[in-house]
Fold this sequence. Notes:
This protein is of the alpha/beta class. The protein is about 35% helix and about 25% strand. The protein is built from seven helices and nine strands; from the N terminus they run H-E-E-E-H-H-E-H-E-H-E-H-E-E-E-H. Strands 5-4-3-8-9 form a five-stranded mixed beta sheet. The longest helix is centred in the first third of the chain and has 14 residues, at about 5-15. InterPro entries: PRX5-like (IPR037944), Redoxin (IPR013740), Thioredoxin-like_sf (IPR036249). This is Redoxin. Belongs to the peroxiredoxin family. Prx5 subfamily.
Amino acid sequence: MSTISEALRAVTSVASSIGHSDTATITVGGSLPAAVSVKEHAADKPLPFEFPAGKHIIVGVPGAFTGTCHKQIPGYIEHFDAFKAKGIEQIAVVAVNDVFVLKAWKESLAPGGSPVRFISDDCGALTKALGLHFDATPVLGGLRSKRYVIVANGSEVETLAVEQVPSQLTVTDAKTILAQLG
């Protein structure tokens, strides 16, 4: 691929061809998977991705530093206080990338720091458990996460939004999710 735009079009094509939004196993009213290991602070220290009491948001993205993801996540960082005012206790960005990439991405998006968590699902365990994965091998080298947002209360899923086309932000951008919180 000679440009990032061509790569994103290829991901869109691959994801659309496999039914990008039709295979989620997680459902509204269902429970988030328990005891799935992810990484946040160190590559050699997996920890269970726990779902605290209260409301929280999980934002799944196909890949750190990719064009649409790099446009999507700043809204969650910028509007974190507005989410808190609507009762959201935590926002976690999840990507099937290694912990080093996620740390670098967070630093590039929020050099002064941010309470938004960046979670490495490097083996895709959480993404697979949610049923929100697709094969992006031709462009991104392997399994990746669909672009989604889950609003949960504890481990119970209250809302689920999945983009039909992963290179677009129609239902998973921060302003849309914030407006839905009422």
